[in-house]
């Protein structure tokens, strides 16, 4: 025996128990529907109506909105500790790392990477050797502007025995580049 309901019938027509095919035929004939609905569509609409009392779709679940207070907390935590990672800030504020990165980007924060630079001192024991390399190299660069494309720079890995943090992972997040100079206490690295 087919399941009967009158949920698709208009209010003007007296409610009576019809099968899905009868209801669908009635709608096609009276409302001139170009794309006829199927029996499964009618069944889904009817079950949705019985469950919720309405045929509208339920509101979709969306990503939770971040409150302005939470945004301020994230920015303040980066102001207080600019060397903090986005992962740490995310866990402190109980939001995702993507949210932290998105907020910092909107607030014009940029992660600046520390770069190792060499300083020539008067008391540097390698100073003379560096100058002996520098002067002829600069002369070669002036005569051949494409010299840098003809040199192969090999990769170098440096390991320290005292547990110094890998400078590849060091970042500083701020709105402006601080141009910091970090004086390093030299340990003897193992270079391979």
TrEMBL record:
SUPFAM superfamilies, per database record: Homeodomain-like
Family annotation (InterPro entries): Homeodomain-like_sf
One term under GO cellular component: nucleus
Compartment(s) where it occurs, according to its Swiss-Prot or TrEMBL record: Nucleus
Protein name: Transposase
Phylogenetic placement of the source organism: Eukaryota, Metazoa, Ecdysozoa, Arthropoda, Hexapoda
């Amino acid at each position: 025996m087919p399941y009967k309901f009158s949920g698709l019938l208009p209010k003007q027509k007296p409610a009576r128990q019809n099968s899905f095919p009868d209801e669908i035929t009635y709608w096609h004939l009276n409302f001139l529907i170009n794309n006829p609905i199927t029996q499964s569509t009618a069944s889904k609409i009817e079950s949705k109506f019985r469950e919720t009392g309405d045929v509208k779709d339920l509101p979709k679940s969306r990503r939770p909105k971040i409150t302005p207070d939470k945004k301020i907390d994230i920015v303040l935590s980066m102001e207080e500790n600019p060397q903090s990672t986005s992962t740490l800030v995310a866990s402190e504020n109980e939001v995702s790392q993507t949210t932290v990165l998105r907020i910092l980007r909107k607030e014009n924060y940029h992660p600046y990477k520390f770069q190792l630079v060499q300083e020539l001192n008067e008391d540097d024991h390698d100073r003379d050797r560096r100058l002996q390399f520098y002067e002829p190299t600069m002369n070669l660069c002036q005569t051949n502007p494409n010299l840098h494309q003809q040199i192969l720079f090999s990769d170098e890995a440096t390991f320290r025995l005292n547990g110094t943090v890998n400078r590849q992972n060091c970042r500083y997040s701020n709105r402006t580049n601080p141009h910091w100079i970090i004086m390093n206490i030299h340990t003897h690295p193992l270079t391979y």
